[in-house]
Specification:
Blueprint: H1 7-20, H2 25-41, E1 53-54, E2 59-65, E3 70-75, E4 82-84, E5 89-97, E6 114-121, E7 124-132, E8 139-141, E9 148-149, E10 154-158, E11 162-167, E12 173-175, E13 182-183, E14 189-193
Antiparallel strand pairs: 1-14, 2-3, 2-13, 3-11, 4-10, 5-6, 5-9, 6-7, 7-11, 8-10, 12-14
Amino acid sequence: MIAKGGRMFVGMSAAGALVALPFTLYAAAGFTGLALFFVFVFRDPRRTIGDGIVAPADGRVREIDEQKGLVSTYLALRNVHVTRAPADGTVTRKERAHGKHSPAFSRSTEHNERLEISLMTRHGEVSIVEMTGAIARRIVPYIDVGQKLAKGDRMSLIRFGSRVDIYLPPESLRILVKKGDRLKGGITRIAEDRNGGLE
């Protein structure tokens, strides 16, 4: 399945291959290769949603801050770039902030273009900050303020490399992952209720 917001890249590359085919095999092969690349980058696989509070995105944990309830994830080009709701909740905020396009792994990423989403869950407010990278230039949101989301529902597509920070309420949730861990959006359990309950 190809993610909404990435399908046009696949379609345009495939169309380019068809148009070029009668004239030159080299160009047709190039467009075909580009289409296959976009199919890989914008893939949106079906997933069985995990227990507890789940990761909002694929990638490697780049930073943990227990006091802030922060889990920061770096998404490489090879990762799935569809983000998912970490818990059941209602969207209370969706704000896009314009900014720079520094590499997603750099310290200056906080000043990059980003999409900030807040969810009101039974654990309290959970905030997700999705940031573009040097190549990623746009985030395609799938959600609106007031919308109720089930855990694992798709929230957005971040085109190419990027970063996703999630801020969990530290008074009610305990972070389970550590720096360097690899996460799967919608699957990997990143936090649990301090009272021991599952989501």
